[in-house]
Write the structure tokens for this entry.
Amino acid sequence: MKLSKLGILAVLAMIALYVRVIYFTPIEALQGAAQKIFYVHLPSAIMGFTAVGIAAVAGGLYLWLRDARLDRIAESAIEVGLVFLTVVLVSGPLWARPIWGTFWTWDARLTLTLFLWFILVGNVILRGAIDNPELRARYSAVLAILGAILVPFIHLSVYLFRTLHPKPILIKPSAPSMPPEMETTMAIAFCAFILLFAYLLHERYLLATERESALEHSERDDARVVQPMVAGHGA
Amino acid sequence: MPPDERAVVTGAPRVPGLLAASLVVARKDIVIELRSRSVILSAITFTLLALTIFFFAWDPTAVASIDLAPGVVWVIFVFVGLLALHRSFGVEQPTRAIDALVAAPIDREAIFLGKLLANLVFLLLVEVVALPAAAILYNVPVGAYALPLVGIAVLAAVGLVAVGTLFAAMSVNTRLAELLLPLLALPFFVPVILPAAQASARLMSGRPAAEVAGYIKLLAAFDVVFLVVCTLAYPYTLEE
């Protein structure tokens, strides 16, 4: 497979990030090396949540404008978002085991991420269960929009339990509470993950476009075969 | 074309408004169900069976049945709800009766609201049987806080059927049909089941009603938001 320019950039940025994280970022005093998973975990989470937002917005626009390209964007965002949220749900417990002493806890943010993951999986399964592309696009859009509306409700309902997740330490009203080296690493991590996200989203979009045109071609071939039979009806 | 104008053109009787049309659709579904009584009877039987089976799934010396009851009741409502929800659109499917409903001179939102009302009546009927049954079988004295408990049950039922009716309308048109409904609906049931179960558990253990106010507000907010959103979304789920 040939990598696009964006793809090469994304891979280079990820390599740079890993080198920086492993060799050139200080080890956190209390958490030790486990803290370094944060540079993968947080950007993945932000990208995953962004994807959920993109899918909902593209879905809403599709219901309004009925442009198949918008559905392809939503479809791509759903699948790419699923990948990033899976990374979040794998990297989180790996960090939580040594730091919290448990892989999983029913904290507000963990639960929300898990259910967003379920909704994205549901959307992928829903898309796979409908043959009519137009109906598929509408249903997927409705689910994506409802999913986005559900976010505050899940968060609120689980928030009534005590939350264990670390509080935001980067984006908060007061100054970020990380040493400058860690901040730089996190900035690199965000750049790398944005590039990777954009690359994957773009590739997935191209795949959807190709799939569609391949389907159209095969349908046109089918139509050519059956044409003599329907010619009498003026078709 | 406004409904009244259309009536003049075709000489047909006046087209019913949104609420009247919803009631007609709801009545239709309830009449169909009353003629066969197939779903309501099996749902109530299922509820009683599930109450019995859940009781034996825990060690009674480790978990008191009063602690068990609220969770069990809400889990059962979810599954009974799913049964009924699928049926509400499944019943239209074999003869494509939904096409006739869509072609009727009523708002599409009225079809949704009618289905929702029928599902709500159905789920409330199940709750009317299940809550006293749970109180008796699990030996929970509910007398003192019956009223707030009923309020929670009604609020939760509205939330469940609002989201569930929409997803039932969608899943019935897919290849997976009833298999898809729980996959789509269960994540959306979380902000209903969680506050409902927590609030009823707190009430049953004798805590003051003020302590569950937050949960009840959350349930009410969910109901309002998803009633509106799902009603508006329903026309997009129809086959064109």
Remarks:
- The interface with chain A takes residues 163, 166, 170, 173-176, 180, 183-184, 186-188, 190-191, 194-195, 198, 214-215, 218, 221-222, 225-226, 229-230, 233, 236-237, 239-240 of chain B (CB under 8 Å).
- Chain B has one domain: 13-237.
- Chain B has a mean pLDDT of 87.
- The CA atoms of residues 63 and 74 of chain B lie 17 Å apart.
